[in-house]
Amino acid sequence: MKILFAASEALPFAASGGLADVAGSLPAALNEQPGLDCRVVMPLYRSIQPKTRNQMTYLGDITVEVGWRKQYCGIYQITVGKVTYYLLDNPYYFMRDGMYGFHDDCERFVFFSRAVLEILPAIEFQPNIIHCNDWQTAMIPVFYNILYKYHQEYENIKIIYTIHNIQYQGVYGKEVITELMGIPTYHTNLLEFDGMVNLMKGAFETADRISTVSPTYAKEILDPWYSYGMDRALVRRQDPIIGILNGIDVNGYNPETDPNIAKNYTAAELQGKKVCRKALLQECGLQDSDAPVLGIVTRFVAHKGIQLVQQSFQEMLQAGCRFAILGSGERFYEDFFREMQSAYPEQVHVTIGFVPALARRIYAGADMFLMPSQNEPCGLAQMVAMRYGTIPIVRETGGLKDSVRDVGGANGNGFTFKTYDAYDMQNAVKRGCELFADKRKWNALVRRAMKCDFSWNVSAQKYIEMYQELMDAQSIFD
After folding, report:
1. Which DSSP string corresponds to 263-320?
2. CA–CA gap between residue 100 and residue 102 (Å, rounded)
3. What is the biggest distance separating any 2 CA atoms in the chain, rounded to whole angstroms?
4. 368-371 β-sheet, strand order
5. What's the distance, Cα to Cα, between the start and end of the chain in Å?
6. DSSP assignment, residue 414?
7. Beta-carbon contacts of residue 104 (< 8 Å; ≥ 6 apart)
8. DSSP E strand boundaries for 92-184
């Protein structure tokens, strides 16, 4: 089975969020299975280091039509482990500081989507499945079904479209259809939604299968509360949305070998975690006591539940909790945490920005990890926290609900609360503090959390089942 995984970012080359983790880990896990050849295609960004560029092989270049324009596309290849990557070069579109947020993002990723299809004869790789991800690749199934499907080199390709976050849809004015896409006007209804062009909606209309990054999120996005208006487009499809929980790189996130933490440890021998806790307190200048240390590693934006933290912060401080916080985002929230650190320097330490090594030390040194998201398609931080024996406190939404089971039930591995309410979150923290006081029960909980299997091998098997089922089925356009 041949799979081409199309993404706008992928580790180890370029990353801004969870998509890069998926594109960097899932293909590698798939290629561990016999008979699978999964390759990745992504843009060649300026941020990719010269050392890495020098290791790439230049395969040639092609011309890609973007509306009335004909644009250069260079094709570079590199192999990392067992995965072949194709990086597509166009200096005008991708030789910039940053990956997203430009006035012509629609044009840039229309070019990329068309280029993904155009390169197939040049790279001599005819996939059985093209796996597209988020709005930046949403035009691939649209272009395929309108312009490529019946060409000899493109026959019988099935296309999966995965939603990593339905909030970001690729919404633009209708003029982009004639200016950038070059598709017949009688197909424009595929892209029109609420008086605009919506690239994600086009993928919903033309992809053979829709998936998302957790089973609960697959249900939530059919609810107007979570769907950002797209429930109306999704419910038109007759087939169910498949939700497969993301995994994490369990070799990269491994407290037994992680060089970034004060002392390595395992579920069987937790002494090292105590050393990491003490080291984190010293690094952050926090008071050592018998009360728990709560870690927060996140973006400071509303849907991450920072408002609930803000509303309950004083009560949690009064309970003796200490906070090691790392993140950045809205200035309002950054200023709040700075004020709390200034007012309570022995209980609160905040680092504005993102420092990967410090994130590891928080995962290893904190006792609990607070993640009260309003919505969370999958979430990786709660899984990483459990890998390091730090117990998550989460709201039951999206992938948080699918990965964290409350200690009140069988095989609990964390603390959960249902409603998006500060008092409910506060109660979950209170329950955590009470159990933390019983070291025997707490250590048993830590060991149980560390033994949870969030490896990509589990998720990869479910993706393989989806791929095989899709290959055995008829296309929605047949």
Report:
1. S---SS--HHHHHHHHHHHHHHTPPP-SSPEEEEEEEESGGGTHHHHHHHHHHHHHTT
2. 6
3. 70
4. 348-352, 322-329, 293-300, 368-371, 391-395, 415-417
5. 21
6. B
7. 93
8. 129-133, 158-163, 171-172
What band does 151 get if pLDDT is binned at 50, 70 and 90? very high
Neighbours of 131 (CB within 10 A): 29
- Predicted TM-score (pTM) of this structure: 0.92
Bridge partners for 159 per DSSP: 130
DSSP bridge pairs for 334: none
pLDDT over threshold 80, residue 269: yes
Q: Which domains does the chain have, with CATH numbers?
A: 2-247+457-472 (3.40.50.2000), 271-453 (3.40.50.2000)
pLDDT at 474: 54
Length of the chain: 478
> How far is residue 322 from each of residues 70, 142, 318, 395, 420, measured CA to CA in Å?
58, 51, 10, 20, 23
CA-nearest of 12, 2, 83, 91 to 44 is 91
Q: Strand 391-395 and strand 415-417: pairing?
A: parallel
User: Tokens in use for 210?
Assistant: 């829709």
Q: Token pair 């890495």 is at which residue?
A: 52
pLDDT at 477 exceeding the cut of 50: no
Task: Identify the residue whose tokens are 């309570």.
Answer: 344
Give Cβ neighbours of residue 279 (< 8 Å, ≥ 6 apart): 261, 262, 263, 361, 365
